[in-house]
Specification:
alpha/beta; seven-stranded mixed beta sheet; six-stranded parallel beta sheet; single chain; globular; about 375 residues; disordered N terminus; Rossmann fold; Quinone Oxidoreductase, Chain A, domain 1
Length: about 375
């Protein structure tokens, strides 16, 4: 990040302000008059949810459809998708379950976050050519959205666009607020992170290290474990597929566990719970091992009582809980990036047609870092 920092002088707050307050780029004083761009775009390609998945997502649960695009409404923008974010929550949204957002309805487009470029605009605040974060959009080649609902991203030399889906995106904010607000790390404490080589877990561990914690990650391959210790700076890493997790935790956490950043659930969570210290904290971010399971057969941890005996603080959270504080999170993560204290990987799969099979990588443990789908080329 030294190159990026150099472009904004010695004060990193110039860069941070651009990352935290991207809407300042929409000031009428700095933008040319928007126009509706003449275009040859007439059709869109969209993934529709046709059935509720049972277990793993099956080929006929989703359908890729090509259809005519309607004329752009006043105040709206046409966004060509460049990168589509693939996350475990996509699988939750396919299920008819009580969750933090309503499920995707059968027969409607699949939901997801994306980054794209404005190809056509009838909005006074967002000109053609702007690179934007769409927030929640749909799995499609193009999205028709209100101009006020997209966020213009700054062009920062040396910073890949995909960083706005990783450390400076929702996963980075999830890691930052989940650990700092719920985990309450203190120097010298032991932090254990499951799914540690994923988009969230890899950030959690590094934030913890920068706050003085001893960090132990749990991942699913020797390659991932090497990346955690040799690149991301974790103190230790456990390959749960070949090691006895309980024995490895005893070895790497001789003084017990103060913080469990939980992403996985299941038997791994039980092994961590068994080794929690008094007054430990457990940010509950995800339970990815259960998302494809039959909900009638899912069970909680067998050693749930240990949370009482250890007086553990357990708090489930969703990143939208902290939306009003994103500027703080962006500032903190941008500072770590500029200081070279964060390493991250982006796992890119190409082609909108590959969205469902790419999503499966998350549940098979085949991704390293943030998983994104490249739908079209960057401008």
């Amino acid at each position: 990040m030294k190159e990026t920092r150099g472009n904004y002088g010695s004060d990193p707050r110039l860069l941070i302000s651009k990352l935290c307050f991207p809407r300042q780029l929409k000031s009428p004083k700095t933008l040319t008059k928007p126009k509706q761009m003449a275009t040859e775009m007439t059709t869109n390609t969209i993934w529709y949810l046709r059935k509720r998945p049972v277990g793993e997502v099956a080929p006929d649960d989703l359908e890729l459809v090509t259809e005519e695009m309607a004329p752009l409404a006043e105040g709206h923008v046409r966004v060509r998708t460049i990168y589509l974010s693939l996350d475990p929550t996509n699988r939750i949204w396919m299920s008819d379950m009580d969750a933090y957002l309503p499920p995707v309805e059968i027969g409607t487009p699949m939901r997801g976050g994306s980054i794209g470029v404005i190809e056509e605009s009838r909005s006074e605040s967002v000109p053609v050519g702007s690179i934007v974060n769409t927030g929640l959009a749909i799995w499609a080649a193009y999205n028709d959205l209100p101009g006020e609902g997209v966020n213009v991203l700054p062009a920062i030399p040396g910073l890949p666009l995909t960083a706005f889906m990783g450390p400076l995106g929702a996963t980075g904010m999830t890691a930052y607020f989940g650990l700092t607000e719920i985990g309450q790390p203190k120097a010298g404490e032991t932090l254990v992170v499951s799914a540690a080589a994923g988009a969230v877990g890899s950030m959690v561990g590094q934030i913890g290290k920068n706050m003085g914690c001893r960090v132990v990650g749990i991942a699913g391959s020797d390659e991932k474990c090497r990346w955690l210790t040799e690149t991301a700076g974790f103190d230790a890493a456990i390959n749960y597929k070949v090691e006895d997790v309980g024995e490895a935790l005893d070895r790497h956490c001789p003084d017990g566990i103060d913080i469990n950043f939980e992403n996985v659930g299941g038997s791994i969570m039980e092994e961590v719970i068994a080794r929690l210290n008094d007054f430990s904290r457990m940010p509950l971010c995800g339970l990815i091992s259960t998302y494809n399971a039959d909900p009638d057969e899912s069970t909680g941890p067998k050693n749930f009582a240990n949370l009482l005996m250890r007086r553990t603080l357990v708090r489930g959270f969703i990143i939208i809980d902290f939306l009003d504080r994103f500027a703080d999170g962006f500032a903190a993560m941008a500072s770590l990036l500029m200081d070279g204290k964060l390493q991250y990987e982006t796992d890119i799969v190409e082609g909108l047609e590959n969205a469902p099979t790419a999503l499966a990588r998350l549940f098979e443990g085949r991704n390293l870092g943030k998983l994104v789908l490249k739908v079209s080329d960057e401008p």
